[in-house]
Amino acid sequence: MSIFEFLGLDKKPPPASEADTQTVRKITAALDRLEPDRARYIAGFAYILSRVSHADLNIGPEEIRAMESLIVERGGLPEAQAVLVVQMAKTQSLLFGGTENFLVTRQFSKIASRDEKLALLDCLFAVSSADQSISVVEDNEIRQIASELRLEHADFIAARSRYRQHLSVLQKQKPGVRSQDTE
């Protein structure tokens, strides 16, 4: 057995389009029992959820649980598989976020319908509000994602308004406490 076989590096990647990024390929490989197009969709969906979760440089346990729940609900995956997908998406986002964010979102935009993009937008706000507060950084990241998905500003505002009670910029500050968003 060669070192490449031992490390699993000699395996051929699953059939993928040229537009696939390394991140999507890695998550898609974990979903090999699904149709390739469905696996790519779920991989992109999960990665974009982790992108907004990581925007404030802190992926909390509430956000992880929200992502897992959304992958089960929207992706139709069993919980164990959803946990794996979220973990992989989270790791990829942490490692390659700076270079992969736009590429994965652009690819998702090409394969998703308008309704699927709007559903993702709502899910982004759900994940970022899982800890009861949407930071300015998370809000800005969602705005950027909506733009990359080629959604209208009105779509962003409509989704955002459903979560306005969680917007940190609108929450009352306790006297003497500085918000991390204003520092």
What key phrases describe this protein's structure?
mainly alpha; 64% helix; 183 residues
**Unreliably modeled segments:** 6-11, 179-183
The N- and C-terminal alpha carbons lie at a distance of 55 Å
Mind telling me the C-alpha Rg?
17 Å
Q: Write the H/E string, N to C.
A: HHHHHHHH
Please describe the biggest sheet, giving its number of strands, its sense, and whether it closes into a barrel: none
Please report the total strand number as a whole number. Answer: 0
Structural class assignment: mainly alpha
The helix content is 55-70%
Helix tally?
A: 8
The average pLDDT score comes to 82
* Beta strand %: under 5%
Overall, the morphology is globular
In short:
The protein has 183 residues and is mainly α. It is 64% helix and 0% strand. Helix 3 runs antiparallel to helix 4 (61-75) and helix 4 (61-75) crosses helix 5.
In terms of topology, how is this protein built?
Elements: H1 3-6, H2 22-30, H3 36-54, H4 61-75, H5 79-111, H6 114-128, H7 136-148, H8 153-161
Helix pairs in contact: 2-3, 2-5, 3-4, 3-5, 3-6, 3-7, 4-5, 4-6, 6-7, 6-8, 7-8
